[in-house]
Write a structure and sequence with these properties.
By secondary structure, the chain is an alpha/beta fold. It has 15 helices and 11 strands.
Amino acid sequence: MDKALNALVAGVVENVERVIFGKHHEIELALVALVCRGHILVEDVPGTGKTVLAKALARSLGCSFRRIQFTPDLLPSDVTGVSIFNQRTNAFEFRPGPVMTQIVLADEINRATPKTQSALLEAMEEHQVTVDGTTYQLPEPFLVMATQNPIEYEGTFPLPEAQLDRFFMRVQLGYPKEREEIAILDAQRIIHPLETIDQVMSAEELLHAQSASREIHIAEPVKTYVVNVVTATRSHPDVYLGASPRGSLALSRAAQAYAAMNGRDFVVPDDVKALAAPTLAHRLILQPQARLKDLAATTVIAEILASVPVESSSAQALRA
């Protein structure tokens, strides 16, 4: 990724920080997912800025934005669209659903039934929707940012493993610190800062960044390290089902984008360590006894990173 493009991506992070205070790393993670053509699951309690993050990203990139409020009575056609018979033309016309946009906020996705949740699977994986046998391509870039409340389980339908695996990474915003919360109060005293956000990067430039990030070099020792970390999730005693090869791909691509955003044209093991938890933790199914101990998947990832050795390589070998 060239310096001009790298500056634009950094500008997006800085722009979003005008409305999301004290969450630099989490905003960087969202940009990593965008650059990798990945989707984001934002899991946190209400009021922590999940919706504002999605809107700020859309405004910063000049992308079209739609919000879908998931409820138990939402139908798949409410997401993808529906064909309606037009009596004037004597033919069916397709009325596109809210998913036919560039950035989709799937708010409280776990409140919808599994049938409606599955309506997003084709869109997320293949960037297309099929309605009444006709396939419609989605605009590029395309990002699904889904939110769910990890505390409230009444009236919810947990996301199945197949759908969780479709999400490139899971991000948790968390509560702001005291000084950051005071800054939020000051910033919204007169007008919401979201109204003042301008576009700093175009959708075309984002597509260029997506292509450029794939060119970032990953040396064989780093590839081996990625695979060893993912493989370790499959044999960990507290894990019932480990990460799939899709997890290996996500971790390597995220490391490429992260390296590019930090001004490097090669990946180092520290990039892999920084992205392991966001890209792999939600793909793990823990053993029942681990869940009884209230063990978190992120703790398992931390244990694996501490135990899996990094092959000794010089900086020259990483670039080679």
